[in-house]
């Protein structure tokens, strides 16, 4: 389960759709809870790095739609500015992907979120993606 789940309000935790039965250690949220989760995480200083869109149909298990989005941190961008920009981008993408769902289906949004400390740790360990071929420092 994502570490950020424990930081969300009990109301949001209770409506999170557990994807573990589908062999995915994550949760998804429908439209309104997804937007609320973005707002709660941003208020805590947690950045929404991106997200994946899943689809549900009446009586069927959620399935990945293979749609996603991401928000990269700009060079020299402060963490606070990044959190705000990434949250606005996530809200826009969630609204867009929800608007294109067929009427019989519903979108689930799986958020990818991180704290500044964890983000900095990962970037120090792996570096920035310099091109589609690999990470900085690859020989």
Approximately what portion of the residues adopt beta-strand conformation?
A: 25-35%
**Domain tally:** 1
Helix content: 25-40%
CATH class: Alpha Beta
Report the CATH architecture. 2-Layer Sandwich
Total number of strands: 7
Secondary structure: elements and pairs:
Layout: H1 10-15, E1 17-18, E2 27-28, H2 31-43, E3 47-57, E4 63-70, H3 79-99, E5 105-114, H4 116-126, E6 129-131, E7 134-135
Antiparallel strand pairs: 1-2, 3-4, 3-5, 6-7
Helix pairs in contact: 2-3
Relevant terms:
139 residues; 3-stranded antiparallel β-sheet; Ribulose 1,5 Bisphosphate Carboxylase/Oxygenase; two-stranded antiparallel ribbon; alpha+beta
Structural commentary:
With 139 residues, the protein is α+β, with helices and mostly antiparallel strands. It has one domain: Ribulose 1,5 Bisphosphate Carboxylase/Oxygenase. 37% of the residues lie in helices and 27% in strands. The protein is built from 4 helices and 7 strands. A 3-stranded antiparallel sheet has the order 4-3-5. It has a two-stranded antiparallel ribbon with strand order 1-2. Helix 2 packs antiparallel against helix 3. It is globular. The chain starts with 9 loop residues before the first helix and ends with a strand. The C terminus is likely disordered.
């Amino acid at each position: 389960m994502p570490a950020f789940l424990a930081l969300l309000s009990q109301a949001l935790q209770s409506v999170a759709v557990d994807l573990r039965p589908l062999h995915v250690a994550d949760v998804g949220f429908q439209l309104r809870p997804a937007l609320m989760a973005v707002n709660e995480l941003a208020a805590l200083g947690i950045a929404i790095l991106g997200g994946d869109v899943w689809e549900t149909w009446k009586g069927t298990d959620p399935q990945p739609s293979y749609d996603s989005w991401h928000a990269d941190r700009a060079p020299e961008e402060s963490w606070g500015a990044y959190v705000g920009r990434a949250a606005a981008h996530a809200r826009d993408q969630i609204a867009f992907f929800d608007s294109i769902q067929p009427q019989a289906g519903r979108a689930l949004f799986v958020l990818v979120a991180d704290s500044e400390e964890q983000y900095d740790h990962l970037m120090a360990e792996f570096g920035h993606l310099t091109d589609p071929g690999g990470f900085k420092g690859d020989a």
